[in-house]
Specification:
Low-confidence stretches: 180-229
CATH architecture of the largest domain: Roll
Mean pLDDT: 80
CATH superfamily of the largest domain: Ubiquitin Conjugating Enzyme
Shape: globular
Number of strands: 4
Distance between the termini: 22 Å
CATH class of the largest domain: Alpha Beta
Number of domains: 2
Order of helices and strands: HEEEEHHHHHHHH
Helix content: 25-40%
Radius of gyration: 19 Å
Strand content: 5-15%
């Protein structure tokens, strides 16, 4: 089940301009991921932040592991590149951390929600309980120095841009989206069917996984979506 779900997610995210993903050794449970902020107002804009995602065999019931290959100087990023972020924490409520079950991982989450949360975290650090105390102190007391450090990290990250890869910008991102417009719309319909189909059984998660069947019988797609709704 995990492999089928992840393959659908991989196909969808491959069309997104804000990330560049590849399988590691053709293993659907191991992804090479690069995050590319497209908000031109972000101090992280222009960077190429490479990471590795590893998925458990029981995904999506357990969260993936995420680790930046080149650690960033950030209040919520450990020295080894791992993150302190609620969405990657195991399901359930943790009284010690103060995190509610709604903030932590749940089977309704997807890779996209994780990556978007990480992009948001870069610009909106949580400094009350930092993974990197020094970075948290600098951000609070000397934001100008912190921005200079971010600028250095942006430049270092560019060393990981693959040869021949054209970095998207805030202006070109939508052009890429338009190129895949028809397929992109279809993949999002499939994703919605999986997300809202439920999360309590294998049968629910199998909904919409058979891409080939939908392509062979496109005329009945509307009826299938109506049934799911």
């Amino acid at each position: 089940m995990a492999q089928r779900i992840l393959m659908n997610e991989f196909k969808t995210l491959s069309k997104e301009p804000w990330t560049n993903i590849e399988l590691i050794h053709e293993n659907i449970l191991e992804w090479s991921v690069a995050l590319i902020p497209l908000n031109s107002d972000s101090p992280y804009y222009g960077g190429y932040y490479k990471a590795k995602m590893t998925f458990p065999s029981n995904y999506p019931y357990s969260p993936p592991d995420f680790k930046f290959i080149r650690p960033l100087y950030h209040p919520n990023i450990y020295a080894d590149g791992r993150l302190c972020i609620s969405i990657l924490h195991a399901p359930g409520e943790d009284e010690m951390s103060g995190e509610s079950a709604a903030e932590r991982w749940s089977p309704a989450q997807r890779v996209e929600s994780v990556l978007i949360s990480i992009l948001s975290l870069l610009d909106d650090a949580e400094v009350s309980s930092p993974a990197n105390v020094d970075a948290g102190v600098m951000l609070r007391k000397d934001p100008a120095a912190y921005k200079k450090q971010v600028a250095r990290d942006v430049e270092k990250s560019k060393e990981d841009i693959p040869s021949g890869f054209v970095m998207p910008t805030s202006e070109t991102a939508f052009a890429k989206r338009d190129t895949f417009d028809d397929d992109y719309t279809m993949s999002w319909e499939d994703s919605d069917a999986e997300s809202f189909g439920g999360s309590d059984s294998d049968e629910d998660f199998d909904m919409g996984d058979d891409d080939e069947d939908r392509e062979d019988d496109s005329g009945s797609e509307g009826e299938e979506n109506d049934d799911i709704a």
